[in-house]
């Protein structure tokens, strides 16, 4: 039986209709009963892939998308709350609670739910050698690889499940090692790369999207040669191009954008649903109001050092807003990348960028710098599109100085998009930051939530929790 993580649909509905009339439910199943692979048809697999995309963030992206931004140093949050509910203050203090105070469980379960959908698709297609479904197979492999990468970033070693009937909480064993998970991720993404078409839409994984994921992974592993190779593949692809309109990366209707390579979308959202788009979390409080009259919490803003680093004319500053914050008695700078009223049209769809082309340019530059070479070409291409002055190699004292510059450029480019905590680890900033919060190296990773430990006694909690 495929449990809640996987292919779950209402059995009564299934018995009452043909697959042609009920297969629309496969992308949004009901968690009561299940069906097996033998009851699937090839035509249903595209819907399972769609369902896998929708589950990556656990159903409510507004709760899991900003997790590592609040954990890291770019975002300051004084929003409190119960330890058993959405509580970014605990994460800003780098003190996550195994009882799940910050939707840690949504992050974990969302990834495994998407993996479960992907496993069904992968095993169905491979076991039947359905070569006409290579695109669906490539997407499923890419989703599985991406989700295991997300899990590894958060927890280090996790349980690898590849079978259609496997549930990580029922498969009673300890997790795989970090290296085993890395190998699984790279294998899946390289297999996906061979099957996927080039980029045409940000709403599905493409060859270039998984290549950029591979570049990111190799960079985090310390393999600068492979990181640069994959970054350059993406940069030189005729299907990709940096955009002059930075805000289009965050708009739902962004026709012509070839920079936003992969996104997740929430919606359509009714006007009363103000948690969508992380509106309540990131938006300023009163007197700021959106057209519906509501206001944000006003308790989460940008690090002042980051704000000060933006240069005159930088188009990225168009997506921040200064306002007085009563909670700290001073003016602060709010992030507006995800605000419905400033960026999203009346259709109410909210965009969550996952992979953007500009990262490939900065990975290429960083890979060179980590090899002792100050090559400003790719770095400057990003800066030109953001309307800031280009720099010469002679402007930097050496490769280490250039690395510091690349780190800051990444902060300005990707703030609020979930990349900062991994960057802090790679640039050697995480441990010092944890120390400033009274924490140690045990907080480099999140805790497995208590509910998962209770389900699987062989799951080993990360140290320090």
Automatic annotation (TrEMBL):
Domain of life: Bacteria
InterPro entries: SusD-like_N, SusD_RagB_dom, TPR-like_helical_dom_sf
Signal peptide bounds: 1-23
Localisation per UniProt entry: Cell outer membrane
UniProt-listed CDD domains: SusD
Domain SusD-like N-terminal intervals: 101-219
RagB/SusD domain mapped to chain residues: 242-431
Pfam families: SusD-like_3, SusD_RagB
Keywords, comma-separated and alphabetical: Cell outer membrane, Membrane, Signal
Family: Belongs to the SusD family.
Name of the protein this chain belongs to: RagB/SusD family nutrient uptake outer membrane protein
